[in-house]
Design a protein that fits this description.
The chain folds into two domains: 25-316, Aminopeptidase (3-Layer(aba) Sandwich), CATH 3.40.630.10; 320-490, Porin (Beta Barrel). The chain is built from eight helices and 21 strands. The chain has helices at 2-40, 53-69, 137-156, 178-186, 224-235, 252-256, 285-304, 312-318, and strands spanning 72-73, 80-87, 90-101, 112-118, 124-127, 130-133, 164-170, 195-201, 214-216, 262-266, 323-340, 345-346, 350-363, 367-382, 385-400, 403-405, 410-428, 431-432, 442-454, 457-466, 479-490. The strands form three sheets. Strands 1, 2, 3, 4, 7, 8, 9 and 10 form an eight-stranded mixed sheet that branches. Strands 11-13-14-15-17-19-20-21 form an eight-stranded antiparallel beta barrel. Strand 11 and strand 12 (345-346) form a beta hairpin. The longest helix has 39 residues, at 2-40. It starts with a helix and ends with a strand.
Length: 491
């Protein structure tokens, strides 16, 4: 009995020592992460904006750590993938910072997992003689710090690396994901077809404040959700958004458009997002250490799994005639007027507007069917002053994606379709519209226009023309028509 008790005490003592050692490692990791973020978001780095000396300091800081850690450089000249950018009328230089660790398994070493984090931010502005710095601690010194420490972990544990792993600090993310697009489309060392998964660490500095970690896009990976949930459960990590939708506002988009499973690690925008007040002392370094440890375990498994790739759902999206959906909101402003064909003139226009919801059904890469449900206010000048009506209108348009730039982030398209309108109220001068005897409350018509999608945003110019008579008296034909300039946002 005494021997059993002593054995139990010995085991308890050893477990306690192990837990204490783990706690000490987490404390040390928190301190190291804080040191990285404090430097990268300091005033001397000038907000890491394009064209600033501070961004060059950030590049060199990251490259210096990659070298000290022991990552292989991108090319013979070092860790930089340089590129030129034209922002408006200004030509500036950019550079991704790239290092990698080669896999040890002959069957897997030619497959790559990318771990990325953009290091650029918004720079600074001048307020009289004062320089106001956008420090970018959470956005995205937090992601860069986490990436550096993950690189250190795997370089120190080469036995874990079966597949190869690429570490990239992306430039020019804030200018439109330009650095990640340059890497996907123009790097001369790694083929996009050999990249089996990508993670973007973008704003991971406020885990406890936001009560968890998003891994948006996890559903694009065939082993993603099962693996992540298992590790999260064992480590006490709360995962929130693990959908199969690629995030368009970070560097995952550039990879996802190439059919690469891409996951955005993110703790939300509770920090002072895109404000000078996003400073290092506000971040949660204990939470960052938890995320780093979680990512260590997640990547360790992914580097060794025999088969890894896109989920079946994500694979379907990549087929030439795959169908998938978006929803969103839109609002438009324009003008409308009435045409009198029998009288050979058109009345003067009035301001018109609409707002509502839309659904996009994407059919492959080229075609999109977009039905909408909108409230619309339109009308025309009339003999009594102004004719105004309130309606619910349902346009259905087919768009042809004629121009697709920047890896699919920018699409330009003509579109055409029809609409149905039900009018329920209105006035002509001071009199209510009579939809029982005088005016038709239902209308059919045509749409024609030109649009452009920029990631989640949609801009459209739409012309409308009725095919039916506004008035019930067929002897007096009145044709409503109008145009609208509208903005939309896709969820």
């Amino acid at each position: 009995m005494k021997i059993k008790l002593l054995g139990l005490l010995a085991i308890t003592f050893l477990v306690s020592l192990s837990l204490m050692a783990q706690d000490e490692k987490q404390v040390e990791l928190s301190k190291t992460l804080k040191q990285h973020v404090a430097y990268l978001s300091s005033d001397s780095l000038e907000g890491r904006g394009l064209g600033t000396d501070g961004k060059i300091l950030a590049q060199n800081y990251i490259a210096g750590h990659f070298k000290d850690i022991g990552l292989k450089p991108y090319n013979d000249e070092g860790y930089f993938q340089p590129f030129d950018l034209r922002i408006s009328l200004v030509q500036v230089s950019g550079a991704n910072v790239v290092g990698y660790l080669a896999g040890s398994d002959p069957g897997l070493q030619n497959e790559y997992i990318v771990l990325g984090a953009h290091y650029d931010h918004l720079g600074y502005r001048k307020n009289d003689d004062e320089k106001v710095v956008y420090h970018g601690a959470d956005d995205n010194a937090s992601g860069v710090a986490t990436m550096i420490e993950l690189a250190r972990y795997f370089a120190s544990n080469p036995n874990l690396i079966k597949r190869s792993i690429i570490f990239i600090a992306f430039d020019a993310e804030e200018s439109g994901l330009l650095g990640s697009m340059k890497f996907v489309h123009e790097n001369n060392l790694f083929k996009a077809d050999d990249i089996v998964a990508m993670f973007s660490l973008d704003m991971v500095g406020m885990y406890f404040a936001n009560k968890g970690l998003d891994l948006k896009g996890l559903g694009t990976l065939n082993v993603g959700e099962k693996l992540a949930n298992s590790i999260a459960s064992s480590q006490g990590i709360h995962l929130k958004n693990t959908s199969g939708n690629i995030e368009g506002a970070t560097d995952t988009w550039s990879f996802g458009e190439k059919g690469i499973p891409s996951i955005h690690a993110f703790t939300s925008t509770k920090s002072p997002y895109h404000k000078p007040e996003d400073t290092f002392e506000k971040l949660d370094y204990e939470g960052m250490a938890k995320i780093t440890t979680f990512m260590q375990a997640m990547l360790t498994e992914m580097l060794a799994i025999p088969e890894i790739g896109p989920s079946k759902r994500f694979e379907r999206f990549q087929k030439p005639y795959a169908i998938h959906f978006n929803t969103g909101v839109s609002a438009g402003l324009g003008s409308s007027r009435h045409k009198y064909p029998d009288e050979f003139y058109t009345a003067k226009s009035v301001v018109a507007l609409n707002a509502g919801l839309f659904l996009q059904m994407h059919i492959g890469q080229k075609l999109t069917l977009q039905p909408e449900v909108l409230f619309q206010l339109d009308g025309s000048k009339s003999a009594k002053g102004a004719f105004r009506r309130q309606s619910v209108i349902i346009p259905v348009n087919l768009q042809y994606n004629m121009v697709s730039e920047s890896g699919g982030m920018v699409k330009v398209y003509p579109f055409a379709g029809f609409y149905f309108r039900h009018s329920f109220a209105g006035k002509n001068g001071g009199n209510d519209l009579d939809f029982d005897k005088m005016y038709n409350d239902q209308e059919w018509g045509l749409n024609l226009g030109l649009g452009m999608d920029i990631m989640k945003w949609q801009v459209k110019f739409t012309g409308q023309r009725s095919l039916t008579n506004l008035v019930q008296n067929s002897e007096n034909e009145i044709i409503p028509m109008g145009w609208y300039f509208s903005f939309g946002y896709k969820f």
